[in-house]
Design goal:
The structure holds 2 protein chains of 2 kinds.
Chain A lengths: L3 E2 L4 E5 L4 E7 L6 E7 L6 E7 L4 E4 L2 E6 L4 E6 L8 E8 L6 E3 L3 E6 L1
Parallel strand pairs in A: 2-11
Antiparallel strand pairs in A: 1-3, 3-8, 4-5, 4-9, 6-7, 7-8, 9-10, 9-11
Chain B lengths: L3 E4 L2 E4 L5 E7 L6 E7 L6 E7 L5 E2 L8 E7 L2 E6 L8 E9 L2 E4 L3 E5 L1
Parallel strand pairs in B: 2-11
Antiparallel strand pairs in B: 1-3, 3-8, 4-5, 4-9, 5-6, 7-8, 9-10, 9-11
Classes of the chains: A mainly beta, B mainly beta.
């Protein structure tokens, strides 16, 4: 079955630098891949969706890439700020249907 | 964006009691809602897909009689944890889909004593 790996459980980045988070999947390429932000004790908040035919998508300081050859998505936050500190979850459709599965997330700490 | 509201945000109950969690889509109609469970530092695990007017579809390993789901209207789905036990203590989150995006409720922290 499809598996998602977010290889860093936690990541510390200095304020102002670019934070890069990685999401790898193991089997077939999903129709789309999503990134969410989750703050402690709260539900996830949708950030970006990238489709299999898109290589890159941007939204303000966020950038997501999708490489179906490497079976990988990278999530970048440029000019990072302490307020960006949160857990970021990668999610994709498990069987190219509406069922979404999530990675374990990466806890990002932006150090002032 | 669309708003999904979940209630209660926190609930503490005694073993053996039942607890109901509500999930509402406030500004859109959701024919399908999803219920997840999340343990500390773990990923969200899909428990079931709730379909308005029909039975929920449960994921493998999720007890249907334990976690009762009712989706009586296009804006409300409920999850009832029956005969709760301490191992049911967890963070439960619902979501609804609109325009290809999933919108999540705030989550409900259940503690069973």
């Amino acid at each position: 079955s499809q598996k998602i790996e977010q290889n860093s459980e936690a990541l510390n980045i200095q304020e102002g630098k670019t934070a890069t988070l990685t999401c790898n999947y193991t089997n077939y390429s999903p129709a789309y891949l999503q990134w969410y932000r989750q703050d402690p004790g709260r539900g996830p908040v949708f950030l970006l969706l990238i489709r299999e035919n898109e290589k890159e998508k941007r939204k303000e300081r966020l950038k997501v890439t999708f490489d179906t050859t490497l079976k990988q998505s990278l999530f970048h936050i440029t000019a990072s700020q302490p307020a960006d500190s949160a857990t970021y979850l990668c999610a994709l459709d498990e069987n190219r249907d509406d069922k979404i599965i999530f990675g374990k997330g990466t806890r990002l700490h932006i150090l002032p | 964006g669309a708003v999904v509201s979940q209630h209660p945000s926190r609930v503490i109950c005694k073993s053996g009691t039942s607890v109901k969690i509500e999930c509402r889509s406030l500004d859109f109609q959701a024919t399908t809602m999803f219920w997840y469970r999340q343990f500390p530092k773990k990923s969200l695990m899909l428990m079931a897909t709730s379909n308005e007017g029909s039975k929920a579809t449960y994921e493998q390993g999720v007890e249907k009689d334990k976690f009762l789901i009712n989706h009586a209207s296009l804006t409300l789905s409920t999850l009832t944890v029956t005969s709760a036990h301490p191992e049911d203590s967890s963070f439960y989150i619902c979501s609804a889909s609109q325009w290809g995006e999933l919108f999540f409720g705030e989550g409900s922290r259940l503690t069973v004593l």
